[in-house]
Amino acid sequence: MATRRLNLPEELVLMLLNEQTGYFYQVPGWSLNCAVIGAALADLSLQSRIDTDIESLFVLDPTETGDPVLDLCLKAISKDKTPHNARYWIERLAVHAEDIIDSTLDRLVKLEILKHHEGEFWTLAPATWHGYSQEHTASQLIKSRISDAIFSNTIPLPRDIIIVGLVNSCGLFHFIFEIDEKAEKRIEQICQMELIGRSIAAAVKDSIAVPLLQRPSFKKKIPSVPLLKILSNRHVWNGNIPAMLADFAKEYGSVFRINIPLTQPMTFLAGIDINRWVHRNGRQYLTSKKFYQGVENEYGGIGVLVSLDGSDHFTLRRALQRAYSVRKLESEMNSVFDMIRNHMKSHWKVGSHVQVYETSRKLSNAQIMPLLTSTETNDIFEDVMKWKNAVQMIHIVFNPPKFVTRLLFNTSRMKRGRKAVDDAVKRVQQNHTPEQRVGQPWELADETLSLYASDPQFFPEANLRFMLSSPMLASQYFSDLMGCAIYAMVTQPDLYAKIRSEADAIFSNGDPDPETLDLSDFDVTHRFVLECQRIYPVVYLIPRNVSNSWLVDDIELPVGEHVFIVMGAAHFMEEAFPEPFKFDIDRYLPPTNAHRSTSFAPVGLGTHMCLGVRWVVKHMAVNLLMIAHHFRLELSDPNFKFKFNAYSSLSVSKKLKIHIAERWKDFPA
Ligand code: HEM
Hints:
Blueprint: H1 8-16, E1 17-18, E2 23-24, H2 29-46, E3 50-52, E4 57-59, H3 68-79, H4 86-93, H5 97-110, E5 114-117, E6 121-124, H6 138-151, H7 158-169, H8 173-176, H9 181-191, H10 195-209, E7 224-225, H11 227-231, H12 241-252, E8 255-258, E9 266-270, H13 272-285, E10 286-287, H14 289-299, H15 310-320, H16 326-331, H17 333-347, E11 353-355, H18 356-373, H19 378-398, H20 402-408, H21 412-430, H22 434-437, H23 444-454, H24 464-469, H25 471-490, H26 493-507, H27 523-535, E12 542-546, E13 550-552, E14 555-557, E15 562-566, H28 613-630, E16 631-635, E17 644-645, E18 651-652, E19 657-663
Parallel strand pairs: 7-8, 9-15
Antiparallel strand pairs: 1-2, 3-4, 5-6, 8-9, 10-12, 11-19, 12-15, 13-14, 16-19, 17-18
Helix pairs in contact: 1-2, 1-7, 2-3, 2-4, 2-5, 2-7, 2-10, 4-10, 6-7, 7-9, 7-10, 14-19, 17-18, 17-28, 18-25, 19-21, 25-27, 25-28, 26-27, 26-28, 27-28
The protein binds protoporphyrin IX containing FE.
């Protein structure tokens, strides 16, 4: 555990962290950036490296402090021989602020002060931190120091005066404490107590109000992609829509529009910068509520996980994360081995030719639904999926007038699908009476039903239908990826052989101990899965609405604009993945580690990023290992040309068949 004093940017970040939403109080990006740089400058000043007053800022001692964040700023200031004031430096250095915030968050996680959650959320770690004389978490300490300064008459420390000044310039005290008139006066008084704090806070305030260096924006119109361009694109005919959209992003820029007859004009955002930006800042400008509302209505829900934003979303995500965690999968790994074996034993007959699409669907759903809900639904899976895909396409893509929607949902196929959803939910509920659950492992359905029982206002009964059937959506995406991965394996015999050899080592003496089965035991298979996720981005876009107007590449996206964030487009961009159409599992070796960048986004970006992100990779690897251990598969038609089925998510074409050529290893009796 660390014992060093936190620097001012770190204390500021802790001050601004909102535990309810897992992110900062709603500080607009520019203000946050200015405040963080202000904190770094103030720290340099406290360490006598620079001096500043209202008019000027100059270097006293260019010796590095040993703190990378502070030294980055010190170096830049020392290099420039022209005198400038604090406001100039705040705005000049603001371009580094996002990196500084990222590295500050990383350091606070390493110090076990913050805990990072998938989806770019942070909360205070439960551990205490011994940086100061008393035992407090570092955040409690900074918040209680500032609260003491405001609500008592003690004389604050110089660093606390600086923090008060910075938080005040962002206008945030009202969100953090109950501020009455007396407290307001006291804050003003504290802000005047110290010269450095005063000048930095004033510079931050001025920069926030009227940035000196921000370039004027010449707003452009959103370019439209002509229909002919779409029809002549080399990827459209094999269904690789994300690769096609990547081509358009290269030609038209990160924002472009497509007008397809009978659909509303669709605005797409695609590219490497878009991925980075949405992951980091999307929460301030984008909402998922409006887009998913139609889908939610079809399920009869009111605020289900995918359609929530802000603190309610974060609270629900935290409540459910255990059920979707890789730990949960690992704790059930012995059953997973059995499920895969039992399914293959009864459905995979040597000598037969099977449709990859259907086989993957059945194998996936035979595992995911039981793992999350202890319920079998393979017999109704296809009906549920047909209904759910139609719901998504109609409400998210076409959005027709209400009467058309009603007509479309009145067909017998849709009625059958809706009934299948009801059946699935009924089965889950029947399997979750208290008697049925005695001695059973805790899973998603238990978590969901207990949330409803303990807080029906937060999690109403209306949401059970969506939540209890939603694992089938996960099954669908998982099976889409599985179909592609099976294709990639059978068409690349060298990789198939390597996966088989890892599998044989793992399963040679019966099932491995799940506790010790680590990604490093199947390094090739692991990287193979990652490359499949990249080259077959089965969910390649996420729909959103603009909630705060947003300037992207000089194009203003107004409030309410429907946008599709095409996170899978970056997968086909040379700058992010050299030779993007080459299947290359070495991209994921250090030092490249291509999967650690936001350009690699096979399961979403930002706050709604898939909660099963780690689960998917391990689970898929285990499936491929077991397939390779037991079976030799080959394409039924060796000349088959790969094509995606691009309806809803991407999956393999229904025409793809494999021949179950040989069983290499018998199943244990
Ligand atoms: C290859 C398989 C999968 C893919 C491609 C995938 C993809 C995604 C994507 C793109 C999202 C974000 C949707 C959005 O932002 O609007 C998402 C959300 C989600 N996924 Fe997955 N997923 C997969 C498998 C799974 C599995 C196996 C689980 C459960 C174990 C799971 C659980 C979830 C949950 C709970 C969310 C909602 C998160 C939220 O709204 O906060 N997914 N998934």
